[in-house]
Amino acid sequence: MKIATWNVNSLKVRLPHVLDWLAVQQPDALCLQELKLEDKAFPAAELEQAGYRAVFLGQKTYNGVAILSRIAAEDVTLNIPGFEDDQKRLIAATIGDVRVICGYFPNGQAVGSDKFAYKLRWLDALTTWLQGEIARHPKLVLAGDYNIAPEDRDAHPDWKDEIHVSEPERAAFRALLQLGLSDAFRLFEHPEKSFSWWDYRMMAFRRNFGLRIDHLLVSPALREHCRSCEVDKAPRKLERPSDHAPVVLELD
DNA sequence: ATGGCGCATGGAATGCGA
């Protein structure tokens, strides 16, 4: 089974890249973030044509998440239960026997800002809800754009902002690990400076000035089934790319 | 020292992302 996550930064603009990528990679499930479109504008027909069904939670201009899958998704959850939120940042569904959770974690803008406080509250609510979710679904993947680089090696050494690498954010990430989840990427060897996001400016991609902020965390029952986890940099090299690259997890 | 790109909205300039 192949499960991937990709922040597409507008599904409308990126649809051709997504369709091409699905044809090449043929994942069983693809988690998408930053759709930036309303539900009525979701390109369900085009994806159906490509052999994928979708469950989605859209929003005008900002946010928006979806899970694409070859087989039908079941038991769909929209946003974090028990957490009042106008922003559409989470969708969960069961694909076969795997619980797939797709999250677009808040950016946080700057340490100490209101948006930063919201980011930490959102993470806290997620962690609380996940306790029960993991108990209900032993095979679980938490995939998405976390907007957190968990360790120093996950950020370019010249990264100058505190946001994404601050201690409170990293503590929140570790709290997710403490639920028993494992960072699938770190189950395997990778080159130094492996990232999943690069700024559009400053020729950041060419200089590999990036962050690893897109993650797939797996439950104990899935950990032993992980066969590979890789960032696919190919779509980042295309014309008009998303600033994020997809991350692909293979399970046996 | 600053902003540098891309997207959305709306139909120019601004907010936001990371």
What does this structure look like?
This protein is α+β, with helices and mostly antiparallel strands and 252 residues long. The protein contains five helices and 14 strands. The strands form three sheets. A six-stranded mixed beta sheet has the order 3-4-2-1-14-13. A six-stranded mixed beta sheet has the order 5-6-7-8-12-9. Helix 3 (114-136) packs parallel to helix 4 (167-177). The longest helix is centred in the middle third of the chain and has 23 residues, at 114-136. It starts with a strand and ends with a strand. The model has no long low-confidence stretch (mean pLDDT 97). The protein binds one DNA strand of 18 nucleotides through residues 9-10, 12-13, 34, 36, 60-62, 107-109, 145, 147, 159, 161, 163-164, 197, 199-202, 204, 211, 213, 240, 242-243.
Relevant terms:
DNA-binding, 23% helix, alpha+beta, 252 residues, 5 helices, six-stranded mixed β-sheet
